[in-house]
Amino acid sequence: MFQVIFTLIAVVGASIHIAFSSKRRSSRAAVAGTYLLYLLFFYVGLMGLLTAYAHVFRPVETSASIGWSTSPYEYEVGMADLTVGVLGVLCLKFRGNFWLATAIANAVWLLGDAVGHVRQMTLNNNHAANNSGIFLVTEFIMPLVILSLSLYHSRWEGRSHPTGQLTLNR
Fold it and tell me: What's the pTM value of the predicted model, to 2 decimals?
C-alpha cells in the first residue's frame, strides 16, 4: 500500500507545482520532467530509503509482510533499496543522464523483484500483502512509467529548455 501512497504524493505534488508554475506548463517536456522529478524523488528516493530502513532495522516484520522467513539476505536487500533510494534523492541535484540511469536502476531492481514475487505466488502459493495484489501491480507499472517518462524527457529536454535543468523552485 505504501507504493500507492508515494505515487499519490508524487503525482499530487507535481500537479500542484505545474498548476502554480507557468514554466512547468511551458511544454510537454517540462510537464513530463516535473512529474519525473517528483516520482524519482518520492517514489524512487524516499520510498527506497523507507524500504531500506524496513529491511535493515525491522527484518522480522518486513519478511513476514512478504510471506518470507527472515534471512541474512534481508540486510543485503536493504542495502540495494538504500542504493536506489539514494539515487532517487540525488535526482534533486543531478540532472540529464543521471535521471535516466536512476530510472534504469529502479526498473531493473523493481521489475526483477516483481518477477520474483510472481514466482513466489505460482510456486509457493505466497499471496502475502507485500508479495501480491496492489503491491505487485505497482511494482510492475511504476518502473515502466518512470522509465518511459525518463526516456521521453531525455529526448526532449534540450529542445524546450536550453539549460536542460528542471528544479523544484522554478
Answer: 0.85
